[in-house]
Write a structure and sequence with these properties.
The protein is mainly α. The protein has helices at about 1-10, 15-30, 40-75, 90-125. It is built from 4 helices and no strands.
Length: about 130
């Protein structure tokens, strides 16, 4: 149960952790001594906990990667020490990266619009 509490503290919207926490609490209420006959269920719970922990580890890795990326971006944007600003080459690279990201976003939006129009065309067959 402690693992589920920790999972919920990290991610309060984690529905699997909530469900597993409620299930574990009910199991403890039904069988307070924790022994006898429930090995299969305990193994299933342990597997679920391991899967939840793996998912949490992946989420933490992603968050660390995102934080590192943000720190890298902030380091590029802020002049260090005696520099008056960023070099023209760095500015050009940043501009190209932003333009590429904008193009990806526009392509995504255009695909979504096309999908909506296509679905509307199917609805109106007259």
């Amino acid at each position: 149960m402690e693992a589920f509490v920790q999972a919920l503290l990290i991610d309060p919207d984690n529905m699997e952790a909530k469900e597993n926490y409620v299930y574990a609490r009910k199991m403890l209420e039904n069988n307070p001594d924790g022994g006898g006959g429930g090995n299969d269920q305990n193994q299933d719970q342990n597997q679920d906990q391991n899967q939840d922990q793996d998912q949490q580890d992946q989420n933490q890795d992603q968050n660390q990667d995102q934080n590192q990326d943000q720190q890298d971006q902030n380091a590029q944007q802020k002049p260090s020490g005696g520099e008056a600003g960023i070099s023209p080459q760095q500015a050009q690279q940043m501009l190209q990266a932003i333009q590429a990201k904008e193009k990806e976003t526009q392509d995504k939006v255009n695909k979504e619009k096309a999908a909506v129009l296509k679905s509307r065309q199917k609805e109106k067959n007259w």
